[in-house]
Amino acid sequence: MSLRTNDGPDEQRVGEVSADANDRPTRYWVRTLLILLLLTEQSALGFSLFAPTLPKVAAEFQTTQVVWVMTAFTLSGAVASPIIGKLADLYGKKKMLVVTAAIGALGALISATAATFPILVAGRFLSGAGFACLALGYTLIRDTFPARLQPISISIANTGVGAVGVGALLVAGVLIDHLGVRSVFWFAFGFCAIGAILTFFFVPETPIRSHARIDWLGAVLLAASMFVIMVGLSRGKEWGLTDGRTLTCVAVALVGFAVWVWWERRTDEPLIRLDLIAKPALRYTLIGGGIAYGATTLLATLTPMLLQAPESTSYGFGLSATEMAGWLLPGQLMIVASGFIVGATAKSIGFRNHLVFGAVFIAIAAAVLSAVPTVPVVIVLAWVVFGLGCMIYAAVPNLALLALPETERAVGSNFVGVAQTLAGTLISTIGFTVLAHYVVATDGHGVAYESAGFRSAFLIAAGAAAIGALVSLAVPRIKQAASSHAH
C-alpha cells in the first residue's frame, strides 16, 4: 500500500483504501484489531493499572507526593495527544502509533528501574504519550478497515477501554501481591513493547495524509503553566499557602495561561480551538463534564489507597492489592455497563440528562465515602453508584459531537478530551494537597493520614461532581433525533 500526501478529497482516498481492504479476508482484520487493542487501551491501563500502586510507591520512596504518579501521566497525555494527532496526519497514523507505543515502553522502563521518585515520575511523564493511542487506533480503523467492519471494530475498541479498567485492577493486584510494585511497571513495559512490535509488522498504514502546522509554543505554554500550578499546589503544605514560593507559582501559572490563551487565539493552527467555547452547547459540556470527570479521577485514586491502608489507622482495611480489586469489582463492572446504558437510552433520556444524572451519582458516591468510609458494604455500594455515574464517559463525547457541525467535530472532541484530562489532573492535585495536610506518619508501610484527610478529599470530589451537575444543566437540549447517530 503506497503512501501518498493529501492530494485529493478524503472521500476518494477512503474509498480506495476500502476497496483494497475488501480484498483481504476477515481473519486478517480480526488479527489487526486484536493488535490495535493492545495499544488503544493504553490510556485506561495507564490509570487503572497504577492506581493500586500508590500506597507501595509512597512507602518505597517515603513521599507524600505520590499523586504525581498519576498526574504526570495525565498532564503529558493531555498536551501530547493533539501534537501526536497532527504528526500522524503528516507522517502516518501507524508510524506514530508505533513511535508513541515505543515512548510509552521507554517511560515504563524508566519507572521500573527508577532509583528515585523524580525519575519514576519522569518515566510516567513519558508514558503519558500513550493517551494518543486510542485516537490513533480509531482513525486507523476508519482509514484502513473495510466499511462493513468499521462500526463493530470501533465499538469493540470503545468497549475494551471499560473492560480493561476491570481487568487492570485485578492484574495489578496479583502482580503487586506476588511480584512487588515494580512488576506493574515491567508489565506495562512489555505490553507497550509487544504492541509496538506487532503493530510495526502486522498493521497496515493508511495512505491518507494532510498538511498541518504543529503549535509547539502553545503546547509548551500549556504544559509549563499546568506544571507550575501543580507544583505550587502540591507543595502547599510544605511551603505554606501564603508563602512567597507558592504565590509565585500561582502568579507565574496565571500569566502563562493568559499568554497561552492570547497565543491560541492569534495563531492560525492552534493546539486547541478556543473559539469553539463560543458555542453554548460545547462550552457547558466542556465545563460541566470536565469538572465531573475530575471528580472521578480523584475518587479512583483515593479509594484504592483507603482500602489498602493498614488497619492500625483509624480508617484503613489492610487489604492486599488483590483483595482491594475484588471489593471494587462490582463498581468496575458497572462502569462498563454504564456505557451500554447510555447507548440504549440515548433517545429516551438524552445525553444531556446522562451527563447531569451521572455527575449527581458521582457526587452521591463521593459524599457517602466521605460520611461513612469505614463500613465495607457501604464502600462497595458507593463504588457501584460511582460506576453508574461514569455514564458521563459516554455522554460527554456524544454531546460534543451533537453540539458541533460535522466539519468541527474532530477538533471539538479533541478539545473536550484535553479539557477533561486537565481537569482530572488539577482536581486530583487539589484533593491530594488537602490530604497532605493530614499526614500523621511516613514509614515503611506507606503514608498514614488522619481519617479527616480522606473525608475532606472525598468531599472535594463530591463538591466538584455537584458543580459539574449544576453546570451541565445549562447544556442546551438537542433534538434527540440526532442522537441516534452518536454512539
UniProtKB/TrEMBL annotation:
Gene3D superfamilies: MFS general substrate transporter like domains, Multidrug resistance protein D
UniProt cross-references to Pfam families, sorted A to Z: MFS_1
Principal place of residence: membrane
GO CC field: plasma membrane
GO molecular function list: transmembrane transporter activity
InterPro entries: MFS (IPR011701), MFS_dom (IPR020846), MFS_trans_sf (IPR036259)
Subcellular location: Cell membrane
Membrane topology annotation: Multi-pass membrane protein
Domain (Major facilitator superfamily (MFS) profile) ranges: 32-480
Key words of the record: Cell membrane, Membrane, Transmembrane, Transmembrane helix, Transport
Transmembrane spans: 33-54, 66-84, 96-115, 121-140, 152-172, 184-204, 216-233, 245-263, 284-307, 327-346, 353-372, 378-403, 415-440, 452-475
Protein name from the UniProt record: MFS transporter
Organism: Prescottella agglutinans
